[in-house]
Amino acid sequence: MACFFSLIFHVMLVCMALPSFSADEARHFNSTSIRELIISSYQESLQIVDEALFHSRQRRSTPSSSTHMFTFLRQTEPETLETSRAAEVFQTTLQVLKNRARQRYKRDVLAPEFLSWEDVELIAELSLCPPTTHPNICHLNSNYRSISGICNNRHNPLWGAANTALVRWLPAEYEDGEREPKGWNRGRLHNGFQLPPPREISKKIVKSSSKRKDDIYSHLLVEWGQYIDHDITFTPQSTGSAAFWTGMDCLNMCENVHPCFPIQTREELSGAQGCMPFFRSTPVCFVNFGSDIGQALQRQQMNAITSFIDASVVYGHTPKLESFLRDLSGLNGKLTVNNQFKDPKGRPYLPFVATLPSTCHQDPQGGRVDCFSAGDSRVNEGIPLTALHTLWLREHNRIAEVLKRINGHWSPEMIYQETRKIIGALHQIITMRDYVPKIIGPESFEHYIGPYGGYDPTMDPSASNVFATAAFRFGHATISPIFRRLNESYQEHEHFPHLRLHDTFFSPWRMVKEGGIEPILRGIIGTAAAAVSANTLMEEEITERLVVPNILQHMDLASVNLQRGRDHALPGYNDWRAFCGLKYIKTLDDLTEVVRDYKVAEKIQKTYKNLDNIDVWVGGLVENFLPGSRTGPLFTCLIGKQMKALRDGDRFWWEAEGIFTQHQKAELSKGSLSRMICDNTDIREVPYDPFRFGKYPSDYVSCNHIPSMNLEAWREERSGDLEQCGSPTKIKNGDFILSSTSGKLVALYSCYHGFKLKGAASIVCERNRWSDQPPQCTGNHH
Q1: Mean per-residue pLDDT for 579-590?
Q2: Fewer beta carbons within 10 Å, N or C terminal of the chain?
Q3: Residues contacting residue 307 through CB under 8 Å, at least 6 positions apart
């Protein structure tokens, strides 16, 4: 199997040099045998897939399976696996097709003039790629976001939706033009030189052994960056599906064989092999990219979650996951909580994952605490991240309780959806008001984002590849090697000493058994963030000692970031500077001017040899910060453009017309992380702005002085119609939402995940009675 895939990749290189068809030849060939060739290539690719799947299942059924353990890191939903599986078949069919055409016709079959859109769509259809979504599926009467993000834009239903492609602001640069990452073919020259291996760049340019403290911002700036990133992007790796198409075990592979793209180390790390394992990002299914067939044939990467700032990190991005996270039996609109542990004051923790026992680290003293479950599967990556997730769970349930008390006539579904809407708005406010201006600086915020001017249906809010893979990874340079837990006086905790970073990974037991979320949250807001400069980028704790569960050797986050950028075929640093209208870097002097550190600029030139080869992540990271920001000009531009798209292209943005009343908007504006901490923990003193680092007690205030949202703004008087018709009938395995359409009261029914609606989805209050019987939710389709 490995030989076959290696052969395909070598064949592809040869193909690049083959002559293309003339237009006449292509037309003649198209009309005769292309369809047959596509179908036979698809059949061969299915055989490859089935055989690899069989070997993989055999390998994964053994208890020592390391591949299965590695998937723990980035779990993906069944819908995502289905889509990526189809995408792998699509990609494999293209490679087989190319190989066969080369053998039979001595021509490059994937030249754009050879394949028509119909041919590409046929391959997509055979591969079971999801069909193109038609705008007419988007119902006009929905007051709430769909969980998958679909139909946010009614004319382009997939914009920003889960399981769609990360968009490209510049064309991909694959070594073969289609799917081989930069650095795939060893010995290949780029601008006259080989690309330096990521590990060499990490050791020579990125690694530092000491960091200063940021005297302005708290460590919350770092943690919120990770948290909100998990609300916007999630690029699954080819562990769940693609790794077994080829039968490859990427954990024991030092060769570039799809989907393994190992990071060469040139050294023996703790007695391990001479490479670090690396799984390529899973491809995404072909979607009609417009008129560019070339782009449709290229490998594109997936964003498995919704791009919108919509609190999918709390609620999930699929109906099944959303359903798992809800307390449907409680009939109270709340989220489900942990049924085994509570904090000392009886406050809830997140529920455990569905499949137990889980692979989280355990307390050496015994007493099991499994991995937590939330809207995003990365919730257990570190205890500060888990603490933020816990805070939002409690805030949802707190708000739901108040709304139920204020509006006794609301159904559980109505309480849940209105609460979800408020929580989504708070995520947007905290990110755009309190976080982004500190990252890109107030002047750049004004320049790239500016005041809100309403929803723009022509703006694509999808996450861009360069944002997910490079620009928003700027935060990795702000990670601190030590995590401090603090007591009520914001001093080192007497019982819970500071932890090395690697001791915070995948360890939810530390929260449950070591004082709850309070010492962790105090640690985040009561510790200064790590400062970044060109010569102190990333701590050895994450370049030399990054711990990944069940991988025996230590990993290097800087190398992983660089390899990921090459895997995604991101253009180089200079291309992105040109994209942002910034000066092209031609000489060492140019680079020194941007970096403001001659030694670092010189190291970069010596390592890369040609400045056009600089990886965008490193180039963006070493730039000197703009005034009042925590990023240089390039990342400021890319983050600014993305944030504007996420705001202006979101039909449900909290400030958009008709989403909230003026009164509700005024109350939402009072929301803050400080208030949430006061409302959902034992912490009684906080800074007004928890992102700013202050000294205790002078820069802290009592919770009594932190503004609070008044949820009375959501009080809804029972309408006269409701008095006349009475409350709609409750149904089993489903619920209703009341809304007003054309002046009439309407009950819109929906079923919980796994059930199907039978009967009228909506009934209207007319002449003192409901127009129809309520529908039923039938059959369990789990």
Answers
A1: 97
A2: C
A3: 149, 160, 232, 233, 461, 462, 463, 646
Which tokens hold the place of 265? 């180390």
Residue 211 clears pLDDT 60, i.e. is over it: no
How does the average pLDDT of the chain come out, rounded? 86
**Is 287 in contact with 156 (CB distance < 8 Å)?**
no
Tokens 């069909």 locate to 131
Rounded to the nearest 10 degrees, what angle do helices 117-126 and 34-60 cross at? Answer: 30
φ/ψ of 647, rounded to 5, equals -80, -55
3-state SS, residue 469: helix
* Residue 104 CB-density burial (10 A; 0-12 exposed, 13-18 middle, 19+ buried): exposed
Q: Which of 187-201, 561-575, 636-650, 709-723 has the lowest mean pLDDT?
A: 709-723
β-pair type (769-770, 762-766): antiparallel
Those residues whose C-beta lies under 8 Å from the C-beta of residue 417, and which sit 6 or more positions away, are 143, 144, 333, 737
What is the spatial distance between Cα 18 and Cα 266, in angstroms, rounded to a whole number?
Answer: 35
- What distances in angstroms separate CA 165 from CA 162, 300, 629, 672, one per listed residue? 9, 6, 30, 33
**Partners of 762 in beta bridges:** 748
Q: How far apart are CA 428 and CA 147, in angstroms?
A: 17
pLDDT (0 to 100) of residue 252: 80
Would you say residue 242 has pLDDT above 60? no
- Residue 299 neighbours by CB under 8 Å, 6+ apart: 91, 172, 174, 178, 179, 283, 569
pLDDT for position 11: 31
Residues 112-126 have pLDDT tens digits of 557 788 888 888 889
Residue 368 CB coordination number (10 Å): 12
Q: What is the pTM of this model?
A: 0.91
Query: In whole angstroms, what is the distance from residue 427 CA to residue 243 CA?
Result: 35
Q: Are 303 and 313 in contact (CB under 8 A)?
A: no
d(CA 133, CA 154) in angstroms, rounded, equals 11
If one compares 56 and 335, the residue with the highest pLDDT of the two is 335
N- to C-terminal Cα distance for the chain?
35
| pLDDT higher than 80, residue 69 | no
Contact 81, 284 (CB under 8 A): no
How far apart are alpha carbons 445 and 640 in whole angstroms?
7
Which residues are CB-neighbours of 336 under 8 A, at least 6 positions away?
Answer: 324, 325, 326, 327, 351
420 contact partners, CB below 8 Å, separation of at least 6: 144, 145, 311, 314, 315, 396
Domains, the chain, with CATH or none: 132-237+281-716 (1.10.640.10), 720-778 (2.10.70.10)
CA distance 531 to 480: 9
Active centre residues (catalytic): 230
Q: Which band of pLDDT confidence, cut at 50, 70 and 90, is reported for residue 109?
A: low
* Cβ neighbours for 573, distance < 8 A, ≥ 6 positions apart: 585, 611, 614, 615, 616, 618, 619, 620, 634
